[in-house]
Amino acid sequence: MTTNAKANTTVTRSALRVAIALVTTVVVLAFTLAAASAISEPEIDATISIPTSSDCASQSTGPFKLGISSDGAQLYATLNGDGRVGQIDTATGTLTASACTGARYPEDVAVSPDGTRIYVTNSAASTMRVLATADMSTVTDVNVGNAGNGVDVVTTPVSVGKVYVYRHLEGSLEVVNAADNTVTTTVNVGSSSTRRASGLAITPDGSTLYALVDAGVAEIDTATDSVTEVISMVGAQAIAASPDGSFLYVVGGASNDSLTRIRTSDNSVVATVSIGSDPTSVEITPDGDRALVVLMTSRTAVFVDTATNAITSTVTVGATPYGSVIAPSGTSAYVADWGGGFGDTLTQLALGWEPPPTSVPPTSESTTSTTTTSTTEAPVTTTTAVALPTLTSSQIAQFPAAVLTSTPPKRGEKMRIRARGFRARERVQIMVASDPVVLGEFDADDNGEIDVEVDIPGDLPPGDHHLAAYGLTSGYGVSQAFTIESSDGSALPVTGSDSTAPFVAGLGLVVVGAGLAFAARTTNRRRNA
Fold first, then answer.
1. pTM metric for this prediction
2. How far apart are CA 214 and CA 236, in angstroms?
């Protein structure tokens, strides 16, 4: 090979390396920009004022902790300053009703799965008040032990049928039968000598309860109401479970400024993020993508990306923020401005993801059949319905990514679809897009989950598509991207949204072409020289 030929080959290779590097940079930049634009930043949407009342224990309002109905229509706030619990219409942002709680300092509130009852604990009384949400009337008072600061309450799915009340300073857990409001047993969960901001969390299926104790996080089997393990951790202040129950998020810790992520399959710590001092609550968005942590001292709500463990945004909320809750749809969050018992507002945050419209034309008559798949012995109910989708392909593509099926979809075959995060017993529509087609409508179970079979259309054209599950009441949806190949109709599963693929591919080809052109011109110059 001559010297000129070697030089030309070296130059060509160098140009190709430059072109490849440019393509890589463009691809990374394009996907980064696409991910950043998929969800906009959380921002304050409204401030909800809570008027004071002298009906119970007149002092001030002091909204403290929050609960929300499964359909997101009603928000409940314990009013720590005047002995009430307030009912707020989330559509109008107004207090529609309130009721006395039987003591001066109501603390926590939980809503029954069907939305007909709320349970309110008091730090200045030995009772938990049960109220009917229809008219906020008292159903009964349940004796749950000695009074004292730090009293949390959680409800369980209908299948479990229990209400748990936790007294931080005693380390005791009262188990209440939801059917007749009687205490059935008391569980000693471990030494607990500290008042915590929010000491209870439960998995969505209600099988496992977690309570913060001095030694860390106590894991309780709700079937036997016994402690099965204690996850070592010091100084934890608040806890939440992910929507699928696979992770716990605990704020506090020894330095009181961290968010710790724990994998529930083996109770191991997988990540710790420094977020700021004095956390009082933690909530997880329905898609599991973000954690909301309220920091009382800095008066902020901090959002953390659960995949990257990075703080993505910070919003100033109230004078002394304390409790928080995220709407089931994932579109809004609410933070209570306790104000040391003297606050009187709630901050409503828009979380930056707006669901598609929830109105759907009436469906035709449905037929139901039961089949058994090879992956489970439990029957899977299939409902076939003819409906006209009101969603566009672009709207479906914006749904949070989820794994709806582990088997690549194929034309003309039955597919098992599983999804969670919907409201209890709401109607869920399964669709396939690019050109949206409704594959069926199904009722979610009491835990807001579906496990069904649908038929993939035999005439589905080759190319990129999305499977989507969409709650017709909540407007919450998730999707899984996949590709139908032209050769045999099989599919290659894709994770996340593929809306930027054509742009990235085209831009990449342009850069490659530019690199090759540069290489050719350089070679010609060398030859002519």
1. 0.66
2. 8
Report the alpha-carbon distance of residue 127 to residue 110 in Å, rounded: 15
CA–CA dist 324, 335 (Å, integer): 4
**What one-character-per-residue DSSP string does 165-223 give?**
EEETTTTEEEEEETTTTEEEEEEE-----S--SB-EEE-TTSSEEEEEETTEEEEEETT
Q: State both tokens at 480.
A: 């899984």
The separation between CA 462 and the C-alpha centre of its own chain, rounded to angstroms, equals 33
Tokens of 336: 């209570």
What are the DSSP E strand ranges found in 392-516?
414-419, 427-433, 437-443, 450-455, 463-471, 477-484, 491-494
Q: Is the Cβ–Cβ distance between 523 and 11 less than 8 Å?
A: yes
pLDDT at 358 > cutoff 70: no
Task: Give residue-wise pLDDT tens across range 149-193.
Answer: 678 889 988 778 999 999 888 888 999 999 999 999 999 998 877
DSSP string, 294-339: EETTTTEEEEEETTTTEEEEEEE--SSEEEEEE-TTSSEEEEEE-G
More confident residue, 197 or 83: 83
SS3 readout for 371-420: ECCCCCCCCEEEEECCCCCCCCHHHHHCCCECCCCCCCCCCCCEEEEEEC
Ordered domains of the chain (ranges, CATH): 43-350 (2.130.10.10), 357-498 (2.60.40)
On whether the CB atoms of residues 274 and 260 are closer than 8 A, the answer is no
Q: How do residues 28-71 score in pLDDT, each as one tens digit?
A: 444 444 444 344 689 999 999 998 887 886 666 889 999 999 88
Beta bridge partners of 409: none
Nearest to 456 by CA among 480, 475, 472: 480
- Name the helix (H) or strand (E) containing 3: helix 3-38
